[in-house]
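Section 5: illustrative case.
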């Protein structure tokens, strides 16, 4: 494990601890340092940093009562290029779930569209959901996203759990 990757891991741990302790200024500072420290877009972990650091910055913004900033961070997280972990297991949904609970469904829908680019296949299969499938593909992950989007569009607040639909 390279020294620079170890530093990124340490920064992530510091962000998590600071957020857990309620030290929002320190959490914000370490998340910004984390983003600034990972500058190689060819590194396998680069997409993780973009996604996860922005997620934490958004959670800090929510705790500070700044929903507009939280929404910007959610969309910045969704603009991650992906990574082996994100592409396979999907993104963390903590910030999206938090914003959804605060009636910010439009932003969450936009985020789900963004993460579909790295989390889902794009091969369509004709059926009743052909339009959604052509956008998201046919993988299990695509079905999750479709389920969530349809629920949000219907005014519901589904549990955004990357492991199960429920």
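Designed sequence:
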């Amino acid at each position: 494990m390279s020294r620079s990757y170890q530093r990124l891991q340490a920064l992530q741990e510091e962000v998590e601890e600071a957020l857990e302790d309620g030290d929002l200024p320190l959490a914000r500072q370490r998340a910004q340092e984390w983003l600034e420290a990972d500058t190689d877009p060819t590194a396998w972990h680069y997409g993780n940093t973009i996604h996860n650091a922005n997620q934490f910055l958004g959670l800090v913004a929510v705790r500070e009562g700044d929903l507009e900033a939280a929404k910007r961070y959610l969309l910045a997280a969704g603009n991650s290029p992906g990574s082996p972990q994100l592409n396979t297991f999907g993104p963390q949904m903590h910030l999206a779930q938090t914003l959804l609970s605060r009636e910010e469904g439009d932003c969450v829908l936009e985020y789900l569209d963004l993460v579909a680019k790295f989390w889902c296949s794009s091969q369509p299969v004709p059926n009743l959901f052909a339009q959604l499938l052509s956008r998201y593909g046919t993988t299990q992950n695509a079905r999750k996203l479709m389920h969530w989007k349809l629920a949000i569009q219907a005014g519901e607040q589904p549990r955004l759990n990357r492991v199960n639909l429920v």
